[in-house]
């Protein structure tokens, strides 16, 4: 990281202009090609945050894996969590192409220098939460990732294409779970509505602050890392999700929700931004727990990784 | 059920319960593995095992003819009705314990499934042939970790040694049989455990020889538990696993 910071002091204006022309022509940037250091930094920040989110996101779902109520639901959930781990691995690999290796990225996470999606700082309290995560959280992720599949950095774009296919499955299994709950007993319907009430707003927060308050958005869009703004993506998610909720009898927890016939869009209350920034700053219900678990697993696994390395070096010499 | 069906029902339960309980145990690792690659691999093991359990339990239900499906058998039986071996219900412990438990069981299951695949019950044989492919990978995966731990650092050697010492006592029980097994063996359906045991021991010994790692010796071996007796652990596994179907009877999920 030290070398990156040094380089960012003086950029070559001619190279930068050529780089921007390539972006405007819709070309993909590949790992060994020249790129402005800010581009590299922004991408490393965003991609590692994405990788960490996939991995930390395994925790709230793993919370229900031993209690899944049928063997079929158990294997579906397990396969989904396994996919998320795979996405994490894939994204760490893509981020490494920018020059920072995985162990350093994990160190940044543990030191609080790197973030992960705040949505995973909320707890999974009943079985329907597993449906809500698949349907709403992965649903929001798909909107974001479909846009990112067109991002200017080649490895990230290709990772997104692959990941989106699996997220589509995750989204459907979540909705399928919610349908089963809403077709079930009164208690199941209550669990589903309770999950909806708790996950709706955190899902909307996943798109980040309003465009006017998003310091990174302007630069990310300039570099064609992001192609659409937070608010536009959030609106797409709202518009496609509300009819899905209504058709299975779930109520959106927003008294001011209305459909604007002129614009063709739903209008919602404003997000509780105090809560949003609190959770980002580490004051969510599960921030400490999630980080503690990750650090603990990492530390407890140290001897295993060391054994694998020792074995590999011994057998390399032979 | 006549005597033969009852024997077959119990045999299927044993196969299914072994896979189910071990699979359930492995899922406890989810998001806590030593490295991300291993989290993915452990999820794979659990997926294979629970998948096998579903097939064996579904078949058990068909033989029983009381309308019990895989979930009825998995979620609505109490501990004394479970037929799994003691080994698979042992706690995960550290990574060495999990891997040794997996290796001891997978090598056992590998030889069992190989023979079962040649058996005269076509359904069991078909499940065995499919499961054997997965089990071959499980032997390889856990076996590779055994080599790394046994020929890694001083700490990993110590942990591996302790894991073998702690778990070896449950291995003899894997091969226990009763009269109903004998009946099925005579019919060419069940596998004769007497033929499996030396193969199992030989495979493990040859593998540990690669890194000059000793087999546990002079060990007290738990035996004769097959008929529904378990360790204290199984009740807790089931309390967690069965919570929702027990709390909301008759609910579809």
Topology diagram in text:
The complex is a heterodimer of chains A (318) and B (253).
Chain A: H1 2-7, H2 13-24, H3 37-56, H4 58-62, H5 71-96, H6 102-110, H7 128-148, H8 154-182, H9 186-205, H10 215-222, H11 230-247, E1 258-260, E2 265-267, H12 273-280, H13 287-300, H14 302-317
Antiparallel strand pairs in A: 1-2
Helix pairs in contact in A: 3-5, 5-8, 7-8, 7-9, 7-11
Chain B: H1 3-27, H2 36-64, H3 70-75, H4 86-89, H5 95-116, H6 122-150, H7 154-167, H8 179-186, H9 193-209, H10 233-241, H11 243-247
Keywords:
heterodimer, A: 318 residues, Ferritin, two-stranded antiparallel ribbon, disordered N terminus, B: 253 residues, mainly alpha, 11 helices, 66% helix, 0% strand
Structure description:
- The complex is a heterodimer of chains A (318) and B (253).
- By secondary structure, chain A is mainly alpha-helical.
- Chain A has one domain (2-284): Ferritin, core subunit, four-helix bundle (Ferritin), CATH 1.20.1260.10.
- Chain A is 67% helix and 2% strand.
- Chain A has 14 helices and two strands.
- A two-stranded antiparallel ribbon of chain A has the order 1-2.
- In chain A, helix 7 (128-148) packs parallel to helix 9.
- Residues 1-9 of chain A have low confidence and may be disordered.
- Chain B has 253 residues and is an all-alpha fold.
- Chain B has a single domain (3-247), classed as Ferritin, core subunit, four-helix bundle (Ferritin, Up-down Bundle), CATH 1.20.1260.10.
- Chain B contains eleven helices and no strands.
- Chain B has helices at 3-27, 36-64, 70-75, 86-89, 95-116, 122-150, 154-167, 179-186, 193-209, 233-241, 243-247.
- In chain B, helix 1 runs antiparallel to helix 2 (36-64), helix 1 (3-27) packs across helix 8 (179-186) and helix 5 (95-116) crosses helix 9 (193-209).
- Chain B starts with a helix and ends in a 6-residue tail after the last helix.
- The interface between A and B is large, with 48 and 48 residues.
């Amino acid at each position: 990281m030290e070398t990156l910071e040094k380089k960012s002091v003086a950029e070559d204006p001619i190279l930068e202009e050529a780089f921007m022309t390539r972006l405007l022509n819709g070309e993909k940037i590949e790992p060994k090609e020249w790129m402005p250091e800010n581009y590299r930094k922004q991408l490393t920040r965003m991609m590692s945050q994405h990788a960490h989110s996939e991995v930390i996101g395994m925790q709230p779902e793993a919370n229900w894996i031993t209690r899944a109520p049928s063997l079929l639901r158990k294997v579906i959930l397990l396969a989904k969590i396994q996919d998320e781990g795979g996405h994490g691995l894939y994204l760490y690999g893509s981020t490494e192409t920018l020059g920072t290796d995985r162990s350093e990225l994990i160190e940044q996470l543990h030191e609080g220098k790197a973030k992960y999606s705040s949505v995973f700082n909320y707890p999974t309290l009943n079985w329907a939460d597993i449906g809500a995560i698949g349907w709403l959280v992965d649903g929001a992720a798909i909107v974001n990732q479909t846009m990112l599949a067109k991002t200017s950095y080649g490895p990230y774009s290709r990772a997104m294409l692959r990941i989106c296919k699996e997220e589509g499955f995750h989204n459907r299994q979540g909705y399928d779970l919610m349908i089963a709950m809403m077709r079930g007993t009164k208690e199941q319907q209550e669990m589903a509505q309770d999950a909806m009430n708790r996950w709706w707003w955190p899902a909307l927060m996943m798109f980040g602050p309003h465009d006017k308050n998003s310091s990174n958005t302007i630069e990310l869009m300039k570099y064609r890392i992001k192609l659409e703004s937070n608010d536009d993506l959030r609106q797409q998610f709202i518009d496609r999700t509300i009819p899905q909720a209504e058709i299975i009898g779930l109520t959106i927890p927003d008294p001011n929700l209305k459909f604007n016939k002129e614009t063709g869009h739903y209008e919602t209350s404003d997000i509780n931004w105090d809560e949003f920034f609190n959770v980002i700053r580490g004051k969510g219900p599960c921030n400490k727990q999630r980080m503690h678990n990750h650090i603990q697993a990492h530390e407890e696994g140290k001897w295993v990784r060391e054994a694998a390395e020792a074995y590999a070096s011994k057998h390399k010499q032979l | 059920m006549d005597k033969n069906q009852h024997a077959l029902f119990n045999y299927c339960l044993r196969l299914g319960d072994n896979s189910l309980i071990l699979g359930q145990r492995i899922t406890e690792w989810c998001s806590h593995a030593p490295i991300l690659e291993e989290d993915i691999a452990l999820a794979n093991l659990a997926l294979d095992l629970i998948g096998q359990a579903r097939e064996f339990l579904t078949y058990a239900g068909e033989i029983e003819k009381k309308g019990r499906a895989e979930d009825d058998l998995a979620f609505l039986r109490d501990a004394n009705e479970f037929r799994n071996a003691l080994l698979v219900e042992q706690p995960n412990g550290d990574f060495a314990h999990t891997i040794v438990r997996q290796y001891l069981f997978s090598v056992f299951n590998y030889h069992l499934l190989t023979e079962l695949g040649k058996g005269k019950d076509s359904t069991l044989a078909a499940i065995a042939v499919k499961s054997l492919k997965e089990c071959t990978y499980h032997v390889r995966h856990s076996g590779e970790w055994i080599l790394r731990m046994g020929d890694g650092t001083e700490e990993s050697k110590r942990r591996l040694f302790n894991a073998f010492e702690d778990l070896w006592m449950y291995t003899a029980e894997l091969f226990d049989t009763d009269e109903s097994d004998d009946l099925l063996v005579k019919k060419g359906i069940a596998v004769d455990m007497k033929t499996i045991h030396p193969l199992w021991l030989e495979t493990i010994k040859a593998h540990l020889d690669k890194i000059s790692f000793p087999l546990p010796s002079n060990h007290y071996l738990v035996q004769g538990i097959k008929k529904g007796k378990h360790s204290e652990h199984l009740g807790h596994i089931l309390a967690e696993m069965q919570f929702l179907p027990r709390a909301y009877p008759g609910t579809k999920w």
